[in-house]
Queue: 3 jobs
Job 1
Amino acid sequence: MMLLSAGLSYINLVLNGRPTVALAEAAMSVFSASLYLLLLKQKQIPTPVKLLYLICLTAVIEYVLFVAKNRVGMSHWLITLPIIFYLTLGKRWGFVLSLFLLAGHVVLLSAIQIETGGALSKADFVNFSFSFVVIWIVSHTYESQRMSIENKLNKLAYEDALTGAQNRLALKHRFSQLSQPDQPRAYLAILDVDHFKRINDTHGHDIGDQVLINLTQKLQHHYGVTNVFRLGGEEFCMLLNCSSLESATTLCDQVRQKIQAVPLVNDEVLVSITVSIGVCELKQGFSLNQGLKVADTLLYDAKALGRNQVLAA
């Protein structure tokens, strides 16, 4: 876009004799160059900046069309904009910008019609509107399908198939967010179902699976859906935003008591479970593996001391 704007600026200044158009296109070239440098530095452009850029781009194109009195072929540039809107900003803003662009261009064509004394035919309005709407619908449909597929892929990548809890990959992603310097203090807890093998051996794996599903729902209710992760088997990890280690320990012990107090009721069997939990603070500079190792050690100490308890350090 930077090179295209610069090239068009040169053409309008030297060949077409339109200095104001050339200035507007030169400004877009500089804006594009600035975004390119920002992208190299930050790897991502904030949404408000992208929105401003697309609004400026649209305004420049509309201005060129007005100066050129909607010369044949010029409106083709506008028809490509819904595609750019949706690819750059997604479904919501793509729809909003496309709607305003269509309405704005109809107003522009009306102004040109008045200024030129009716030089534009009804066919100009109809052809542009029809072409624009078709591209708009295609862009909207494509982005909707893309978002749906992306959500399904994210669910497969980050969610445990049996329980619906987040998995280890999601834990790594969440930990990377919490480890940022501006994030509040966080704590990590590892929970294990006591004597889970006995449940499977006594009641069967179907009941064992139901226990894990029921436990996940309880943990998500108390800790939040995005803070509960299944590490494997009957072992779960929770990330806690608490003010102190004491408050994190108290929260885990309250959950432990509620799990013990409410057994799983099935059509065929009633299963009571207890859990052991290890809790540690994610200190500055801690890696995820270090945090898991400390919490895991505390968990097995809790089991060695008789299970159904919380240990913290």
Job 2
Amino acid sequence: MEDSKGTLIVAETGSDIPAELVSAYNINIVPMHVAMGNETLDDGKFPIQKIYDYYKRTKRVPTTSATNPEEYKNMFEKLHRLFPEKQILHLCYSAVTTATYQNSLIGSEDMDYVTHMDTKGVSLAQAAVVLKIARFLEKKPFSPMEELIAVTQNCISRLKFSFLPGSLEYLRAGGRVSNAAYLGASILGIKPLIEIIDGKLICTKKYRGKIQRVSLQLIEDAICSNNYEKDELYLVYSEGLDKEVMDNAVTAVKKLGYPNVQWIKTGGVITCHSGPGAFGIGGFSAEQS
């Protein structure tokens, strides 16, 4: 029997869902934060160039922080006030990378109308899960929460996302690689491949060469390894990636049988970690028949 209440979706700005899709699917977004010195800004409320300018000026990477409990509380209460009959499904930014999940639990204390799920994803990975569930609800708007939980768990288990950071300088400045590793990688032209595995960002492979060639190799390797569903494939980039690289990427995935490509542009939180000119690919591995 269908639940007549319906469901609202909440996610963080760190999901990097394009504004037009947020609007199209009525997704409710709460802000994460970026701090540059003494100035703390809401993710998505300032130009990305500000991050690059700050790093150039200070040689420091801006720090990022989770949505705080009060922000979650305000969002949940607002939605409940406007739509008291509806349930809220919070599809959360990876719990192991930041305090978002724990803060959301604190913010929703005693709210029996809120269900939380850790998407175990950031940026494209979180966005893909959120959009998959939004489209599911568009077709079945009154699905009971138990069904939504099962569908979401299935999506999370099949999501495969990998990316090439745009700048090792940002990884070094942020303390994610040592000076020695940075120097060696820079001299050899090595680009680490980062994958989302059980919510964690893990370096699983290293490519060597310029982004123009390496991006195409990543596409071929990822599609070969992951057998993505044909109906939706995601590509992600951070501001500063050459347009030719982007155009060639779209051509490559279409030649490999993926006509529907959705670009995701990294927002402030993810760009602080990836640096300018990052590139990645993701989607859902096809279910076994």
Job 3
Amino acid sequence: MEFYSKHFELNKINEGIFAAIAKDGGGAVGNAGFVDLGDKTIIFDTFNTQQAAEDLKTAAEKFTGRKPSCVINSHWHGDHIRGNQVFKDAEILSTHRTFEQMKNVHPERIRNQKDGMDDLSGYIKKLIKNNCSIETPNEKINMDKKIAFLKEIESSLPGLNLTLPTCTFQTEFEFIGQKRKAKLISFGSGHSICDSILYLPDDHTAFMGDLLFVETHPSFFEESNLENWIKSLEAVLQFNLQIAIPGHGQVGTADHLGIVKNYIKRFVSMKQEDSFPEKMPYEYLHWSNGEMYQQNIKMISEKALQKKEEAMK
């Protein structure tokens, strides 16, 4: 691919279908992509910063020959929507629940981050100073990536403006283009309060958002609905799917949906059995973001305890 960005690696999936896979230390954080329908270009998610989104827009215009006319926000989390302002001339589409969550949560969150810019700058300077004394190569590489990431946040904040979706849907929205059709589908809550995927049936491909993580630990939140997340993955597995583009990690296949489904099932079983073993199963040891496993354990154990306490009232 004749395109370079420090924020993402551009992967050509098929003619007119591109996945933008986030690079460590860049301003993307989550994955994104774009699709040429023949007469219009769709962007799927917009990254964590404007500078990463600018590169995505440039790539989309270069490889489709036109400006994006529609942007999809798969869910409300910042690493998938904070680049929206770069596409302000396009229609921005999400579920209504995603729109409401963005509108209710992000204004205060962004305002607080802007108010804390001096603290962020001081923290970055402290990390840079401490980085000089790190001797272990792997630790130094990880610290370099952390510093680079924080600098991207620092760079983005002064000009960051929340740009909300301009159009919403409930469960399905279909695009019919000259070259291909695409289906935007929401199964409701899963990773977030409401998640959407973009399915390209003729290409046997889906942009999965954060319903799919490939060889990196999924992140569970208070809002996550593990049971419905499993059902969502099972529903997509009924499609004629070959290529699955995750919200985090490298491009995968339908097999990776099954792997993540089984990962989540383990945690559901822990909750049901009220047993939370801390040792990570062998098959996940090579996955990135390993600290997330313990955070997920903590999340579901606290939710289980809260449910018990509520039942005793």
